[in-house]
């Protein structure tokens, strides 16, 4: 039973909280650190940064990844950039402004103190990354370059061409490998965490399955850090990598960790529209493109001319028209909904009329093709490889796609879940982005949590455990967890049904996209809440998993992940139904302004919904963490 | 379109493998090569045959997970393109396509088309980093980096670690991968303190696993990020200089 959810936010002025709290928290002396074992699950930005940093400090770390190398985590695919309040452009940025923009951009559903800390450490991240050799874009004088990004009126985004995530992850991965060499981190690859071990209400370790041999193993530790990313793949089609999944987080939820704001998902406005039935994933085109590209659709739904022959008078630059001050740079949720409106009105472009134009012609005229190639060359090439169309000559076609999940496991100010000893970092937690994440802030949060927050807050927790050894792996709690994992593997292999795990995943994705996607309403969500349990029941009767559990078996891995998505999807719909207000990426059609913008209900919904597992998603219990805004005044967001 | 696929099937590292033929109908031009394999796997599952295991993840050409020998070419016929970004419009209707895993002693087959590339991690582990413990770095703009140098480091850092360079090389050498990893850091001012030990350690580790370079250049032709051969020359230069230099004098201006 989950009791009171204490956010553990320290007292004091918002600008001093973190500094004062760093002094107030307890430390672990260097000679004692090696006595503490820490398991880090996932090696993306948050996980690799945390494992490297804790290893450097002298803790005994195990880093576990299901990839063949830590460098393959999906952080690698982030394109646009990373925000930091360096104010190198002298254009009015500050820690407070980054904090303010993030709380506002999140539509006032994030925790102020966490966001301010994020803004504070953002500047240290850039220093750290440059020190590691991350080749950020530079000016000719050798100084770092910045650009602006959606939802911001200052240039605070650092970038490495269109491959910022790759370069930041390589930095964190290399730091991690340095610690592997030093012997402070044990790296375990091709291994999936399938359960959290909890004893006396405290996280004690994990149970894993070796994906190459099928061997189930027990790992014990003083603390477990989940850095496992988001759950966007519940929609089947998303910009997430194919392996990205919610299993470790969901298993932790089923062992008692509260799941917060599951319905807060981000639909990214600029992705390549789906082309046909076997589409396996959607490809993002960085939001940075909106700096130089203009979004438009033909005014006439029956337009047949190619884009280049449609004169300006017959085009509707709908973002510039509706939001003159932010124009094409409105936040993601606003840009996405407006694209959906245009397509729903029949003004969509492309063979399936399922996209809007993102046009670079004006920028190419103004800056020249070379300048555009320098900024976005790799993205334009990728677009051409996928669509066979040349975006230097004709406008790109884009449409929103599921991209990021703001919801996740509930954590307090220390990034600790309500299960003591279980910490959650990066996209896997819920705390910093509210109901909508600003562009270039995911990389910032992953690295903030991993490099600059966890080492302080974890020490504070571990200091109380000095002298206690980790629970031995022959403890009944470990034995039981291992048996459960092994039984589940056997269960999938023995169902012997007729349909592949992918079939079920696609069906779930359709339900989620139709009823819990860019716009949601009560009728649709009720429908989803009846269809998902039925699909789940069918899954356990009719899924077909061939092969054995003793060798590499991707179909078996997939079955376990889909089984968990089938429960999580239901909880997302339940949360979306429960939250009858609109906020950020959560748009309830029943709650909108006269102009069709998301209308919050601060009186009734200014809280975090933290769900408790009861054995069935239908009966999950909602707890509330009230949100208090002492610094940023709640207003209706306006980007006009 | 209709395709005949000859695919390498191997149940484990120890097992003997073989090419097996499959036919696939109604393949759309617009799907990717991996989506074509997804289609095949759905067909195999419905027929009760074990699906083909292949590595893939981001499907955006950046994670480096995928990598197949397609008609004997690493990542297939399109230059500068990883397997996941290759689309079926590059193949003709009625084509027969051979699909094999990377072939190299340092990359043992795990199953079917999946190989173990952990030797790459061993190379990076031996020196492919700048020792800058968290919190120790000075302000990011303290050391200006000339744009040309930053760009050259970036071009090397673009490596996705897929292993195509090794697979394409007649000697199974890993010079292009190692050079990219070494030079990304050795070209930057921040990487200078460990410049010599880095190249020595990484090259020595590379040689424990991989063959030797004889300047065929197949690696760069197969590289999905088109990393140029120049970096191998830079690495060799660094290696030779590192052998000769008295590192006690490395703090002096060169």
Could you please describe the fold and organization of this structure?
The complex is a heterodimer of chains A (640) and B (254). With 640 residues, chain A is an alpha+beta fold. Chain A has helices spanning 17-24, 30-33, 45-57, 95-105, 112-132, 164-182, 247-254, 318-322, 332-344, 361-367, 369-387, 442-462, 476-495, 501-516, 522-542, 554-578, 602-605; strands spanning 37-41, 60-64, 82-83, 157-158, 185-188, 191-199, 202-210, 216-220, 223-226, 259-260, 265-271, 294-298, 315-316, 356-359, 396-405, 408-409, 422-424, 607-612, 621-626. In chain A, the strands form 5 sheets. Chain A has a 5-stranded parallel β-sheet with strand order 5-2-1-9-17. In chain A, strands 11-15-14-12-13 form a 5-stranded antiparallel β-sheet. In chain A, α10 (361-367) packs antiparallel against α11 (369-387), α14 (501-516) packs antiparallel against α15 (522-542) and α15 runs antiparallel to α16. Chain A starts with 16 loop residues before the first helix and ends in a 14-residue tail after the last strand. In chain A, 62% of the residues are buried. Chain B has 254 residues and is of the alpha+beta class. Chain B contains 8 helices and 7 strands. In chain B, β1 and β2 (18-24) form a beta hairpin. Chain B is elongated, with a radius of gyration of 21 Å. Chain B starts with a strand and ends in a 10-residue tail after the last helix. The mean pLDDT of chain B is 97. The chains are: A alpha+beta (640), B alpha+beta (254). The interface between A and B is large, with 83 and 81 residues.
């Amino acid at each position: 039973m989950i009791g009171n959810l204490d956010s553990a936010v320290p007292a004091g002025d918002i600008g001093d909280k973190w500094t004062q709290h760093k002094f107030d928290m307890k430390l672990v002396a260097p000679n004692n650190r090696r006595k503490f074992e820490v398991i880090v699950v996932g090696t993306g930005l948050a996980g690799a940064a945390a494992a490297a940093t804790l290893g450097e400090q002298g803790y005994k770390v195990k880093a576990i990844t299901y990839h063949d190398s830590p460098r393959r985590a999906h952080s690698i695919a982030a394109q646009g950039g990373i925000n930091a309040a360096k104010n190198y452009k002298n254009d009015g940025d500050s820690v407070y402004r980054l904090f303010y923009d993030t709380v506002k951009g999140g539509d006032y559903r994030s925790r102020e103190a966490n966001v301010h800390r994020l803004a504070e450490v953002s500047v240290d991240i850039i220093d750290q990354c440059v020190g590691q050799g991350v080749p950020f874009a530079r000016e000719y004088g050798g100084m770092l370059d910045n650009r602006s990004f959606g939802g911001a009126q200052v240039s605070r985004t650092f970038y490495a061409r269109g491959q910022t995530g790759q370069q930041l992850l390589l930095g964190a991965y290399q730091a991690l490998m340095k610690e592997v060499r030093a012997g402070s981190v044990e790296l375990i690859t091709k291994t999936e965490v399938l359960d959290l071990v909890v004893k006396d209400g405290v996280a004690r370790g994990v149970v894993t399955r070796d994906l190459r041999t099928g061997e189930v193993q027990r790992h014990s530790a003083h603390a477990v850090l989940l850095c496992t990313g988001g759950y966007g793949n519940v929609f089947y089609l998303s910009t997430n990598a194919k392996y990205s999944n919610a299993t470790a987080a969901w298993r932790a939820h089923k062992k008692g960790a509260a799941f917060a704001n599951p319905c807060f998902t981000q639909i990214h406005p600029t992705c390549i529209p789906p082309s046909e039935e076997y589409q396996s994933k959607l490809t993002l085109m960085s939001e940075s493109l909106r700096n130089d590209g203009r979004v438009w659709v033909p005014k006439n739904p029956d337009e047949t001319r190619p884009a280049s022959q449609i004169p300006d008078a017959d085009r509707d630059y709908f973002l510039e028209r509706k939001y003159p001050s932010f124009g094409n740079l409105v936040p993601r949720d606003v840009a996405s909904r407006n694209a959906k409106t245009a397509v729903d009105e029949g003004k969509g472009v492309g063979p399936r009329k399922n996209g809007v134009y993102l046009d670079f012609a004006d920028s190419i005229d103004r800056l020249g093709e070379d300048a555009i190639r320098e900024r976005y060359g790799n993205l334009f090439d990728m677009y051409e490889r996928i669509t066979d169309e040349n975006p230097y000559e004709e406008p790109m076609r884009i449409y929103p796609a599921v991209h990021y999940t703001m919801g996740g496991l509930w954590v307090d100010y220390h990034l600790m879940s309500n299960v003591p000893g279980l910490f959650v970092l990066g996209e896997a937690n819920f705390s910093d982005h509210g109901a909508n994440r600003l562009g270039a802030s995911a990389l910032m949060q992953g690295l903030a949590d991993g490099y600059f927050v966890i080492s302080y807050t974890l020490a504070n927790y571990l200091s109380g455990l000095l002298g206690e050894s980790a629970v031995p792996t022959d403890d009944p709690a470990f034995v039981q967890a291992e048996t459960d994992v092994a039984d589940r593997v056997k269960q999938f292999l023995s169902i012997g049904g007729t349909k592949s795990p992918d079939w079920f995943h696609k069906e779930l994705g359709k339900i989620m996209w139709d009823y819990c996607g860019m716009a949601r309403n009560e009728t649709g969500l009720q429908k989803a809440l009846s269809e998902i349990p039925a699909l789940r029941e069918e899954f356990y009767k009719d899924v077909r998993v061939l092969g054995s559990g003793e060798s590499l078996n991707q179909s078996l891995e997939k079955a376990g992940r889909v089984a968990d998505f089938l429960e999580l999807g239901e909880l997302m719909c339940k949360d979306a139904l429960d939250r009858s207000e609109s906020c950020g990426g959560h748009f309830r059609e029943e709650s909108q302004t006269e102009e069709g913008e998301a209308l919050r209900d601060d009186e009734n919904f200014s809280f975090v919904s933290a769900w408790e597992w009861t054995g069935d998603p239908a009966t999950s219990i909602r707890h509330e963490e009230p949100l208090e805004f002492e610094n940023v005044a709640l207003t209706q967001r306006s980007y006009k | 379109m209709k395709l005949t696929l000859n695919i390498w099937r191997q149940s484990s590292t120890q097992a003997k493998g073989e090419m097996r033929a499959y036919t696939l109908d109604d393949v759309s031009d617009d799907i990717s090569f991996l989506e074509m394999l997804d289609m095949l796997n759905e067909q195999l599952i419905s027929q009760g045959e074990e699906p083909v295991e292949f590595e893939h993840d981001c499907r955006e050409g950046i994670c480096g997970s995928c990598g197949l020998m397609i008609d004997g070419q690493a990542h297939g016929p399109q230059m500068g393109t990883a397997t996941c970004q290759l689309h079926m419009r590059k193949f003709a209707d009625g084509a027969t396509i051979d699909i094999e895993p990377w072939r190299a002693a340092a990359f043992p087959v795990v199953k079917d088309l999946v190989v173990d590339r952990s030797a790459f991690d061993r190379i990076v582990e031996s020196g492919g980093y700048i020792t800058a413990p968290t919190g120790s770095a000075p302000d990011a703009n303290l050391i200006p980096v000339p744009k040309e140098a930053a760009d050259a480091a970036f071009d090397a850092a673009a490596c996705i670690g897929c292993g195509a360079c090794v697979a394409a090389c007649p000697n199974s050498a890993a010079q292009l991968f190692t050079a990219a990893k070494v030079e990304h850091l050795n070209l930057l001012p921040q990487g200078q303190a460990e410049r010599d030990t880095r190249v020595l350690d990484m090259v020595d580790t590379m040689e424990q696993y991989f063959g030797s370079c004889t300047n065929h250049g197949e690696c760069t032709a197969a590289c999905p990020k088109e990393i140029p051969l120049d970096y191998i020359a830079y690495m060799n230069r660094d290696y030779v200089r590192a052998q000769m230099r008295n590192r006690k004098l490395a703090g002096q201006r060169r």
